[in-house]
Amino acid sequence: MKLVYPNGGIGVHTPYEYSDIKTPEDFEEHKKVFEFDEETGTGTLVGMDDVTIEWELEDINYIAGKKITAVYPEHKQLNILRNGTTEQQEEMTTYIDAVRDWANSQNPDPWDGVLDAIQP
Amino acid sequence: MGIRTKQDTGYHPYVFEIEPWWNGSPCRRGNYPSINARYTSGTSAQNFVFNDSGDYSPSGCYADLDLQWPGNSGWYGRNYGQGGTSNQLNHTGGNSNDGDSAATPFEQRYGMSIWMDLRVGSSPHPGYSVAKTYIAILRNANGAHQGGSFWNANAGGAIYTNPRQMIDGTERIAVNGDNYGNGLYRGWSCIAQYQNASMPMNATTLRVINLGGPNNSAGLQVKIQGFKIIYHIAPVLGADRYGGFNL
Q: What is the pLDDT of residue B84?
């Protein structure tokens, strides 16, 4: 993920997996701009930065993978494939395909609610 | 503040170090960024100065490293080691509350060194003067204007001509190296030694940019296979010298 500032300047550029910005709330916190009194250390919130996130393919794939394995960890997928009912297999396939479709869609945004709406 | 049970003994200098991380663990031979050179000929790298937004993120020519541990300033901790003239060890006067007042925010008796293990180039044994490139080491500044960026900014916007250097002088550093087998020959390079410098409290990321160099027609890649930031703590109360170096 890249932090992108006005004029296209690229700020911190790190995989989502290792970023300290994991949620929209984290990002809002990150945008805060403080000015300090160097004598007292008192900080005053003076504004919010104009910055956006540019998601990269590896971020999307990581987030999608976590979304899938949160419900169907690999061992569970194998068990369902090996001896699950047809209904269980269809349910799992539907869920995984929906997440993968999201990951392969145009400019997926992990925080716009679309991914959250996908439930097993 | 750390408990100090016995005064007037010791006065030995000490250091501690932190290591920037790449992909979730410290830079090392098994885990390192490979950074391509921006300039591959002439004196562009040698004379480089930051000027516009693109200078900070040339494609494939930079890597962002994670600072898991803080810098050596002490705005809020205010629990200082011995050595400062105004920021004394809180307990020395027997009053553990002393540190709440009057302390000047910055401890000036810290020194700082930086060492890196760098592979430069794409082949072994190039000769000392051949595998030479220039790097920049910048930092972010959380809570500042455009705090996730590596250029300074104010309420009016970015100031691209003013990079957020890791410490003064890291805007452009010449480094030599070798790349035999991606790390079969290795060595530490001193980037800075006993600098009277501090890393601010709000730096969480370092950006290393490979600016390139004059003999760079093949594109001298830089691989960071080791990165140590060392904080030196002065040995004695009020000392302004450490190991023979002025701090």
A: 43
